[in-house]
Protein 1
Amino acid sequence: MLPSCKIRTADASVRGVRTSISRPSLLTPIPEWYFLFYYVVFTFLFISLRTVVKMPVTDPSVVRGKQLYQTLGCAACHRIHGEGEMIGPELSSVVRPAGR
């Protein structure tokens, strides 16, 4: 058994009375329902995060750009996000403001 801590109270009515508070043992068995509780909590946490962090809706111009990249054969020379060849410049960081 682990040692206990002795605490003296400052209250006049219980002056001189010692109370002992023992530290919980590390070998105390954990109730089996704790695991179920944590399983349920983390399941709901992940489900709620999945609904909050949704993939953005693809803009029609992005879809059209992907179609052009594939049909015109741009991947033969250019690489975007790890796909394609490295003959021409990398196009992953190329950003053009809308309307230009």
Protein 2
Amino acid sequence: MGLIAEKKKARAFKAMRRFVVAIFLLLISVVSFYLYAKVFVIPDSFREGQRGTYEIDIKLYNVLSTVDSDGRAWYLPIEKKEQELNLRREDAERFYESIGPTEVIKRGIGSNMRPVGKYRSYLNMLEEIGKERGWLEYEKRKAAEARGGSVKHPEVEVLWVQRVLQKKENDKHEQLKSEYFNSQEGSKTRFYNNFFFMLGYIFTLLFVMFPVYCEKIIK
């Protein structure tokens, strides 16, 4: 009877130690995320990026490409590339339609499923087209910046003023942001903000994984 009682006492003590460790991990996680979110807080205006000139640039390019006859050398290569990408997208869609209903398009289990065969080739086509469209958007913005300030057209002039004002606002925001993070207060806040976020993340992960490994950790 004494041996059985000792075993029960040992099991209870072991369970108590596991409970205490789990509570400790959870407590550190909660406190860390609280300090991250409520105490060492980076001002929202510096956490969020400013609205860029992307939308204005694209609108500006679309107008310029129709009214700026002197700048056709900027627009012709872009228009040619855009036509090419549209044709390639149509080819990719035709290729996708050629995939038979019985063909395997993915292999694996659950979240580990991966595209295979023709479907993988189709996705690769779309990825390449997407990359080149990104380059094309960059070229459009470059043309808009180069030509927007020199074309005398009412719609162009309105968009150009909007772009200049937005650029000034962005530059001012970046300057204030730089001054804040280079200050003693901003530097300390950013350090502890990142530190407590990582600490909270690590201890949350330890808390989640603890039931799996507690047998090895606490014997």
